Amino acid sequence: MVSYVLNLDRIALYIHYERELTEEEKTSIKQFLKQMVEEKKSFDEIKGEKKDYKTENLDIFNKSVEYLKKNGVPSALVDTEYIFSEALKVSRNTLKYSMSREIKEEDKNKIREMLMLRAKNRKPLQYILGEWEFYGLPFKVRENVLIPRPDTEILVEQCIQLMREIEEPNILDIGSGSGAISIAIANELKSSSVTGVDINEDAIKLANENKILNKVENVNFMKSDLFEKLDEDFKYDLIVSNPPYITKEEYETLMPEVKNFEPKNALTDLGDGLHFYREISKKAGSYLKDTGYIAFEIGYKQAKDVSKILEDNNFAILSVVKDYGGNDRVVLAKKAIKADNFEEIEEDEDVDLS
């Protein structure tokens, strides 16, 4: 009876059990129960004919997939699933169990609007939905702030592993954008104190919204051009950054979803893609503890160059980590002992270096 009233497959009731019933649905259930008692009949005996919308809805869904494919949208099936889930207010995992319910005209209009934005404008799905998941957490996204990428979760995972054994690590995230890296790390390392800096005021505002959304207290965001507003006397255990690393030439070849919508200055340095690695590596040592680490996300061809930049600035390379596609994606390094300090130690007769 309940699945009948809610227009759901019976198995879907177990998936939607936390959903609050509308007043209209409650009334309908009460009326059926009352009729069953008064007439002493089973529900199957008293239910009227009710249209099954599954065939109609699946037809609409399949036509939507074809529409996106025809307009050259990658991952047309997955995008359609997300769009329908958003319009119907169900999770993508439970969408197939909700296809028997009627799709109201206003929801069909929402679906049409989102499909057109995705197909004709090639607007990124994340901006259409206004929210995206990163490291298992929800994040609000807007056009003037970079969309969090799955590969960046590898950077987060490596940072968490580096800091896991430190009691109360202080962590700096340079170019924090939506706050995805900062918030994900802070959420996993409850005893940490994370600071995210970005030059974009809109990004800082969005990061603070995501901090509230995810109820993470041990993270703060501030506007700063790299280290500009930071106190050099305060030392961090880790500096992490996913800087703009796309070269000027590569930027011109990007997909329209990226090139026409995402902020240019968050993607490219309009040069060789190494500018921010140089600038951060040059000053990072002054803001790190002697035992401090640095972690960079990199372009798939940049491991050698970024490693050289770090080594030239007194960092020892720990590892280069690959992404899900087998490409180099993260460089991890540790602050090295300065050569002149090492010479002083070597000259001390009380220290046995053998």
From TrEMBL:
It comes from the Bacteria. Substrate binds at N242, P243, P244, Y245. Residues 162-251 form the Methyltransferase small domain. S-adenosyl-L-methionine binds at G175, S176, G177, S178, G179, D198, N242. Its EC number is 2.1.1.297. It catalyses: L-glutaminyl-[peptide chain release factor] + S-adenosyl-L-methionine = N(5)-methyl-L-glutaminyl-[peptide chain release factor] + S-adenosyl-L-homocysteine + H(+). Methylates the class 1 translation termination release factors RF1/PrfA and RF2/PrfB on the glutamine residue of the universally conserved GGQ motif. HAMAP family: RF_methyltr_PrmC. This is Release factor glutamine methyltransferase. It comes from Fusobacterium pseudoperiodonticum. The gene is prmC.
